[in-house]
Structures are given as C-alpha cells and as structure tokens.
Amino acid sequence: PRTKKKIEKFNFSNKIKKDNIILSEPIGYLEFLSLMLGAKLILTDSGGIQEEASFLKIPVLTLRKNTERPITVQRGTNTIIDKNFDQAKKYIKEILSNNYKKGQEIEKWDGQTSKRIVNILVEKLIEYN
C-alpha cells in the first residue's frame, strides 16, 4: 500500500503500465513465494525477501544503503544498490542477459535447520539423562 501511494504521488503509474509492471494488493505468503519462483530477479528493500530470494537462487538487488543480511552480499546472491538507478539498470540488463555474477550457496541455508535443531536437542537430552 505505501509503495502504491508513492507511485501515485510521483505520477509513475503510466510509466509502470508501459513497462509491464503489475501493482497488486497485498498477497499471501504462498502466492508471493510462487511469484518469486517465477522471477528472473528481485528488487527489494525487505530483509526477509533478501533471504528468501537468496535461498531460491534468484538474484537480488536491494534498494537500501545496507542490509541486516550481510551474508547474502558476501556470498554474491544480493547486491546493495541503494538509490543508484543507473547501477540498477546495468545490473538488471546483466541479469536478464545471463551476464551477472552467480551467487554461491550460503552455508547451512539448505532447508535442514529443523533437523539440526532436533539433533542438538536429542544430544542435550542424552547428556542430561
């Protein structure tokens, strides 16, 4: 809702329609995840989306000065661009033409966290008994 209001405030609505960008109402998590899975790249200012897109191996361009998820930048799955729109255009072209860096997997971001937690809890229970 905030983004939509800003787009209207700065009269970007017509430009967006020409660029095949869809503004939607807020959507649920599963629908959003489905949209992410179909994306070639993601522009965001959300820390959570930086994580999820990195896990899904979708290039992320973050429209902020910093991130609370620095591992995503260190491993090359996320690039901080702040408000540098020339840089954003350059990276978008590289991503869409498959000339962009390939991010590396992030250690322990393998979907096995709950299994590791259970193993640690079992070990601790055995220690205490």
CATH 2nd-level architecture of one domain: 3-Layer(aba) Sandwich
Main sheet: strand order:
1-2-3
CATH third-tier fold name of one domain:
Rossmann fold
Order of helices and strands: HHHEHEHEHH
The averaged pLDDT comes out at 90
How widely separated are the two ends? 53 Å
**DSSP strand content:** 5-15%
Give the CATH level 1 class of one domain: Alpha Beta
Oligomeric state of this protein: single chain
The percentage helix is 40-55%
Low-confidence sequence ranges: none
Question: Would you write up a description of this structure?
Answer:
The chain is mainly α and 129 residues long. The protein has seven helices and three strands; from the N terminus they run H-H-H-E-H-E-H-E-H-H. Strand 1, helix 4 and strand 2 form a beta-alpha-beta unit. The protein is elongated, with a radius of gyration of 18 Å. The model has no long low-confidence stretch (mean pLDDT 90).
Name the features.
mainly alpha, 7% strand, 129 residues, three-stranded parallel β-sheet, Rossmann fold, single chain
List the helices and strands and how they pair.
Layout: H1 2-9, H2 13-18, H3 29-37, E1 42-44, H4 47-55, E2 60-62, H5 70-74, E3 78-80, H6 85-96, H7 113-128
Parallel strand pairs: 1-2, 2-3
Question: How would you briefly describe this protein structure?
Answer:
It comes from marine sediment metagenome. The protein has seven helices and three strands.
